[in-house]
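ERR on first pass: missing label on line 2. Operator R.T. fixed the label and resubmitted. Corrected input:
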Amino acid sequence: MTKVITDVICPFCGTLCDDVEVTVSDDGKKLLEVANACVIGTEKFLHSQSSDRVTKPRLRQEDGSWKEISYEEAADYTAKLLAKAKKPLMYGWSSTNCEAQSVGNEIAEIAKACCDNTAAVCHGTTLIAVQDIGLPSCTLGEVKNRADRVIFWGCNPAHAHPRHMSRYSIFPRGFFTGKGQMSRKIVVVDPRCTDTAKMADVHLQIEQGRDYELLDALRVALKGEWLPDVVAGIPAEKIREVADILKSGRFGIIFFGMGVTQSLSKNHNIDAAIALTKDLNEYTKYSIMPMRGHYNVTGSGEVFAWQFGFPYSVDLTRGFARYNPGDSSSIDLLLRGEVDAMFTIGSDPGAHFPISAVKQIAKVDSVCIDPHLTPTSGVSKLHVPVAFNGVETGGNCYRMDNVPIDCRKVVEPPVGMLTDLDFLTMVCTKLKKLKGVA
Amino acid sequence: MANSISINLISGRTIQQGVAIESGKEKPSYRTACGIIEMDASDLKKLGAWKNTNVKVTTDYGSVIVKAIEATQGPHPGVAFIPMGPWANSVVSNNTYSTGMPTFKGTPAKVEVAINEPVLLGIELVQRQCGVKVG
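pass 2 clean. output:
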């Protein structure tokens, strides 16, 4: 007999869907089927069951081959690496739970490390903008129940957050949005005619990298002032038409993504988007929300903020927390060659950092804690496979709207396999001994 | 038809990329999903390349071999898209301009036909560029 576990949380993207159903074998050891999740979430659950999974820590040998070692030895190696390093970088955290992140922060403090999460290559510039001018935001529940104007700026949820549109932003019938999609006007701003843009009432096919200009042009159009004939490739009449659509709603939301955070102007693009939201609040109610990628990158920012006062790019090398993106941020630290040990958990900088930064990771002593084989594990000296968070262990995670949700364990991990939290606790104990901390 | 053309390179997620990273980055499916460059039909024509031809993408930051396919979310003449992953990151701009964020979108790039060059697997591509000895 199989069992169906309902209300499972999907540990893939920041939408953190909480209605997944998972069928497991009677003994709870095999995960058989996944329902309600998107194709990516389904793959995440099913991949945990693959037969070729690495189940023991592996240390790279002189000849490039791997040697299997115990978790005890792996924790020893990691603790010694952190104790010895002058400026270790502890990066990742976004695909693990808040409990593990908190122990990781304790380790970082003892090791006097730089610590950073995947916001570094995702919504880091958003966090800078939020510190500049604030963030009028809301929850996804409010979007579902109230939003009749939805703007997707530089984001493509059809591909990156596949169920966002059906659960919250385009299709659901909410309390004040009873006609679902018919109740909403959708505006998409993107240089490509994306699959999200194909669902929009209006698609502004902006010239790539000119978001700041178009955001400012919309602010001008709201006030009815003069505009040039064309801004960022969009005719002035079109901009005025969109400004009227935005103004005429009862509740609007701007979702934005990598299109604005990673293009030139970066945090200033977000400044302008938040300023547009502020201006729109003079006419009606508007909110703005970043489309966070990893399922717990938001949680990582929260835990960093509780413990260090800053949401990412934290430098503890002087024994207290400093925050200065551009100086204490992962990419810059690596490119300047300042990092002498790399500790990666719950992310894959090997695949997602520019190659010049990855080359620096390959040069130093390194540990990669990840259930998967990745380019990061491929260039690291030690690979520690762990249980899949959200599948083989539970723990607290934060949705993109800062709502905390407890993930659920649905299946047992392979025999003897530790979780992130177990392994980090081992490392923390060993590091304390090495450093003489009580 | 030209030997090479200049395009504006951007990167980002695709649903195929999402599935591939969750099913195993060591597998050829990761290369199929991300070792590609989506180009507008008009740009492919300018380059004189058939769809599914291997091309070399070169920027100030490096070069990489990927398979040129016709844009799936086009038209976007002048703009080309490599899904996020080691192939895109071999050529994107690493400039953070003191924000901590590399400029993943908007790197000027040159594309030329490289029909006889292979597209490497993801982990292999990174290991080779980093000079990691593999046993």
